[in-house]
Amino acid sequence: MSIQSEVCIIGGGAIGKAAALALARAGMQVSLVTPATPPTKPISSDHWDQRVFALNPIARSLLASLKVWEAMDATRIAPVDAMAVHGDGASAGHIGFNAYAARTDALAWIVEDQNLNQALDSALKFANGLQIINSTATQLHTDEHQAAVTLHDGRKIHASLIVGADGAQSWVRSQADIGIDYRAYNQLAIVANFSCEKPHHGVASQWFLGEQGIVALLPLPGSRVSLVWSAPDKLADTILQESPEQLCQRLAQLPGQTLGEFTMLTPTTPQSFALRFIRAGAMVANRVALIGDAAHVVHPLAGQGMNLGFGDIDALLAAIAKRDQASDCGDARTLARYARHRKEEVLLMQLTTDGLQRLFDTDLAPVKVLRNLGMTALDKLPFLKRQLMTHALGRSV
User: Fold this and answer.
1) Could you give the angle at the alpha carbon of 333 between the alpha carbons of 327 and 338, nearest 5°?
2) Do 199 and 345 fall into the same domain?
3) Burial 69-82 (b: 16+ CB within 10 A, else e)
4) What is the pLDDT of residue 103?
5) Which residues 6+ apart lie within 8 Å of 278 measured at CB?
6) Cα(172)–Cα(176) distance, rounded to whole angstroms?
C-alpha cells in the first residue's frame, strides 16, 4: 500500500506533534509516523510531572497560533517573572533578569511535559490533512523528485519532504548520512519536584557550584518548584541513592536560597538522564530537514533545548511559505533557506551553553574569581543584559 503526502514527519514527541499540526494547519497533507503508545493518563492534582519545559515567547506564540496553548491546563503553568543566577565560592557573583526590563509578560512559562502533550494530542485529532501512522520506519530513499519511507509493515509513504523529529538518536539523520559532533558532559540531570516553605514569587534560581555542577529551581504553581540538577556522574550517583529528605536538605543549604525548607512531591524518586552535546553536521539533506534534538542537543543550563525545537518549526514554516509557486516544500532552495535561517541562532545557543558549562566546570581558584567578577560586572551593564535576554526570548526586546 502506498501513502501519498506532501510532508512525512518521523517522531512522535512534542516537537514532532507540533510540527505536524503546524504544517497541516498551513494547508499541507502531512503524515506523522510514530510508534503506538498507551493512552496518556489524566493529570492528577497531587502529581507533578518531573519533566518540565521553560517555554519562551516564541514557543508560546507558536502554540497559541495552533490553539494548543489555550487547551493546556492553565492552573498547572507558572510564569517566570524573574531569574536569579548565583556564582560559587566566597566571592560568588550574581546576576538578575526580570520580565519588566525585557518588556514582556514573562521571561518564560514552566510547562509540564504531560500537560503539553495532552493538549497536542487533542489538537491532532481535529487537524485536517493530517494522518497519524502508528508504525516505525525501516528505510528512507530520496531522489531529485521525491522521498519514500518504508514502514515496518511494508507500506510506503511518498512525500516531497521528510522531517526528522526523532530525537538525539535520530534514525532520519543517520539515513540521510548526516554526521554529528558529539561530546559527553559526564553529568546526569537529576529532576524532581518540591513544595517549599516560602513563596518563590515567580523567580527561577540557578546556582553554578563548580565541582558540584549546576542547580536550577524553576517555579511551579503555588509554593512549588521543579529541580534540574546537572551533577557530575559520581555526585549524581550519590544523590540518587540518598533519601528524599537528604536531597531536601541539600537544597535547603544552597547559598542564598530564600525558599526555606523543602518537601519532595510525588513521585518521591528523582529521575535522571545523561547530558551530552550533539550538533548535526547539517540541518538539511536532499529532501530532508532535521528539527529539535535530531538537529541539536544542548546543555539544559539555559533551559533552551525545547525552545530551539519550536524555533526550528517556526523557521521551517516560514521557509516553506516563501517558496516559489512552482516549487514543492522539499526543494533544495526551500531547505537551504531554512538552514540559513537557523544557523546563527542554533550556533550561538550551542556556543553559549557549551561555553558556560566549560567555564563553570573548572575549579581553579583564579578562574572562579574571574567568572564571579564577570557575573557581577555584567549585572551592572543593562545593554549587555538586554542582549542576553533578547537571545533567550527568541525575539528583539
Assistant:
1) 115
2) no
3) bebbeeebbbebbb
4) 77
5) 168, 180, 181, 182, 293, 296, 297
6) 6
Identify the CATH number of the domain in which residue 103 sits. Answer: 3.30.9.10
Residue spans of alpha helices (H) in 112-243:
113-124, 171-175, 233-241
Structural domain of 245: 52-110+183-275+363-393
DSSP H helical ranges for the chain: 14-25, 57-65, 99-102, 113-124, 171-175, 233-241, 244-252, 305-321, 332-361, 365-379, 382-393
Cell numbers describing residue 217? 529551581
Q: What is the CATH number of the domain that holds 333?
A: 3.50.50.60
- In this prediction, residue 127 has a pLDDT band, given cuts at 50, 70 and 90, of very high
Mean pLDDT of all residues in the chain? 89
Q: What is the pLDDT of residue 196?
A: 97
Torsions phi, psi of 137, nearest 5? -90, 140
pLDDT score recorded for residue 370: 56
Q: Which residues lie across from 34 on neighbouring strands? A: 134
